[in-house]
Each structure stands twice: as structure tokens, then as C-alpha cells.
Amino acid sequence: MDNPFSEQDLDQLEELLAADIFKDEAMTLDVLQGFLCAVVSGPEEIPAAAWLPEALGEAPAYESPARKEEAEALVLKFYRGIAAALEAREDFDLILYGFEDDPEELDYGSWCDGYVYGSQMGERNWFEAAGEYSEDLTDKMEVFFLLNGLLKEDTLKHGDKWMSPKEEQEALAEAQEELPNAVGAIYRFWQSYRAKPAPARREESKVGRNDPCPCGSGKKYKQCCGKDAA
Question: Helix, strand or coil for residue 194?
């Protein structure tokens, strides 16, 4: 990868996000990685000016303009590294923290919260943009909704039966293993969408059958050039 994001960069970014200048409004590193994976992957390109305030907070108290530029450059480098890895179909390690009460258990839910939040950036709703392929997208997104608890919450909210504790644990373990593949699959789903040519736009207004023929003959369109069109 060009311009790789090193371990030193990662440590620097983790320290930066915890800095007091962000007033606890900056995303943690795990949430930021999930968030940027979605921002990179969606149906439209999201400008940095739109997502940076979501990642770092609305009004960080930078010590100087130079410090602001340095901080944003580091986040943008992280973004570019994620974009390059997804484009090259390279595996990259998910950044996951342990829970405070159980450091050995990794918190996939926060990572997925970041991803789901990132999927809401931009002007186009993912499921509306997917159109006839929205069910395919829903299937791909189920991993995220399972891991962050939204699927369970929605199921119980509607009075539907949820899995047994054993089934839930098995489903969560399977989803954790599948998560990196799901990230790549959704990226490729939207890249295919972006590659589709835009519908051709008619440059001239359509001529009605009873309108004067644009050739200047004085006849109605249907009696002149419209015959050939018909």
C-alpha cells in the first residue's frame, strides 16, 4: 500500500483521540475504524468536511491552526489506509477493545455502532439507494445489527421470539468471524453500484405528435418526420 498507516501512526492517533482538546466528543479508535469503513464504502463519496466533525467533534480546542492541520492529516491518512486496503481486498486487523468488566471479551458492538453510524452519512439512504437489491444489502448488514444488539432489540420490541442464550452465543461467534468478510462484501456491493453508468439525459424536449414538426415543413410531427419515428 502507498502511504501505509504504521503502528506508530496508530498509537499517535489513539493518543490524539483521547486528548482533552476534543472534550470527550471524538470517536474512540475502534468506533472510528468502523465509521470510516462505512464512509469509504457507501453509494456516494462523502467529503472529509462532512465526516470529520462527526469523527472529532464539532469544536475541538486546538492549540493552533498548525495543530488542527496535523490532527486532521493523521485522521485522513487513516481514512486513506482503510480505503486502499478495501480497494485492494487486503485483510486488515479490526481494532477492538475489551470491556471494562471483562477485558478478555472483545467489544464488537462499538465497532459495529461506528459502522452503522457511518452508513448514515451522505444524502442517500443506503437501503433506498440499493433499490431492487435492498434485500441483498439487508442480508449483508445483518452481521452488524446482530453484533451491536439492534437486531435483538428490534425483534423483542415487535414481540417476536428471540434465540435461546446458547443459540445467541453461537450466532454472535459466527458473526464475529464473518465481520471482516461482510465489510469487504458491502464495499464491493457499492463499488459495483458506483460503476453503473448514469441514465442518459434527453438534451432536447420531446416533440408531441400534434406539434409542428421541428424540420420546418409546417406539417404536424406525426404527419412528417414522426412517421419515420413511429
Answer: helix
The answer to whether 186 and 130 are in contact (CB under 8 A) is no
Instruction: Give the type of residue at 75.
Output: V
Nearest Cα to Cα of residue 185 among 126, 121, 141, 127: 141
DSSP code, position 25: -
Contact 40, 83 (CB under 8 A): yes
* Cβ neighbours of residue 121 closer than 8 Å, sequence gap 6 or more: 38, 39, 42, 46, 50, 51, 54
Helix (H, G, I), strand (E, B) or coil at 174: helix
Write the pLDDT tens digit of every residue in 61-118: 999 999 999 999 999 999 999 999 999 998 778 999 999 889 899 999 999 999 999 9
Query: Model pTM?
Result: 0.82
Type of residue numbered 194: R
End-to-end CA distance of the chain: give it in Å, rounded.
Answer: 56
Q: At CA 112, angle to CA 169 and CA 94, rounded to 5?
A: 90
Q: How far is the C-alpha of 113 from the C-alpha of 143, rounded, in Å?
A: 12
Torsion of Cα atoms, 168 then 189 then 40 then 25, to 10°: -30
| CA proximity to 60, closest of 17, 101, 28 | 17
Helix (H, G, I), strand (E, B) or coil at 119: coil
Q: Are 182 and 138 in contact (CB under 8 A)?
A: no
**Vertex 112: Cα angle to 41 and 10 (nearest 5):** 75
